[in-house]
């Protein structure tokens, strides 16, 4: 049995862009955005834990081959494609990746269907900052950024950049001031994250909840999974989306 066989397939369209989706569970909505190279077994396994905790999980399929394992080969196949895709801003500073508009539309649709205070949004690695960009929309009540890596941290300016336009950053500040917290996860010496956590602390202060682990590993929820990281994410979703665990 394939890992996604028990998930309901669908698609979402916005602004002329369509991506497939996989959905499972019941309860408040949570959007889990996969890392490179795509919907790996580890990403799906983490999503299953969120489902088991009592949430409706939607997995957008943005790139890669669903269920393909994390390997040097799959990364080498996907990486060049996403780097040239117009949906993702990989090097420019002070810009929001265009795919954020599609993700915000998906969040609004899920929230309109399920109700409640909003939906959760979690990005990881290449997509880590996308949950922050989704926070601009009021439908997102529980943004989680796991080891955000865009723009690629080449130089100090890019390493500190949040992959947000000035207008979107202003909206993030306003929502944080209004009580919307942001949960961030990383390994403390992960070079891919750059100094973005310091930027977030400076921009939104105590609204940024930092969870940091010692070492130079990267994927806090998947390849280099920390149980504390998973537990903190589930507790954050429960608190922000009014779900008793």
TrEMBL record:
Which segments constitute the Dienelactone hydrolase domain? 26-148
Q: Which keywords does this chain's UniProt record carry?
A: Hydrolase
Q: Which InterPro entries match?
A: AB_hydrolase_fold (IPR029058), Dienelactn_hydro (IPR002925)
Chain segments carrying region Disordered: 1-20
Name the domain of life this protein comes from.
Bacteria
Question: Could you say which residues form the signal peptide?
Answer: none
Q: Which GO terms describe its molecular function?
A: hydrolase activity
The Polar residues compositionally biased stretches are 1-12
Protein name listed in UniProt: Dienelactone hydrolase
- Organism of derivation: Nocardioides agri
């Amino acid at each position: 049995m394939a890992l996604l066989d028990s998930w309901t397939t669908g698609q979402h369209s916005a602004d002329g862009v369509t991506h497939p989706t996989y959905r499972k569970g019941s309860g408040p909505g949570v959007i889990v955005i996969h890392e490179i190279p795509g919907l790996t077994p580890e990403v799906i396994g983490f999503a299953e834990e969120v489902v088991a905790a009592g949430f409706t999980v939607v997995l957008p399929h943005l790139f890669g081959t669903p269920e393909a394992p994390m390997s040097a080969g799959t990364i080498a196949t996907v990486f060049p494609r996403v780097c040239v895709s117009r949906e993702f801003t990989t090097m420019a500073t002070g810009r929001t990746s265009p795919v954020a508009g599609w993700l915000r539309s998906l969040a609004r649709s899920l929230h309109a269907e399920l109700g409640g205070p909003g939906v959760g949004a979690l990005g990881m690695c290449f997509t880590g900052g996308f949950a922050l960009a989704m926070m601009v929309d009021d439908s997102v009540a529980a943004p989680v950024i796991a080891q955000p890596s865009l723009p690629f941290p080449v130089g100090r300016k890019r390493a500190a950049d949040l992959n947000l336009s000035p207008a979107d950053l202003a909206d993030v500040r306003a929502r944080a001031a209004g009580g919307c917290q942001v949960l961030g996860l990383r390994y403390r010496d992960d070079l891919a994250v750059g100094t973005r956590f310091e930027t977030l602390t400076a921009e939104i202060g105590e609204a940024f909840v930092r969870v940091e682990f010692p070492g130079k590993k990267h994927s806090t929820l998947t390849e280099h999974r920390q149980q504390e990281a998973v537990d903190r994410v589930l507790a954050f979703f429960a608190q922000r989306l009014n779900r008793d665990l």
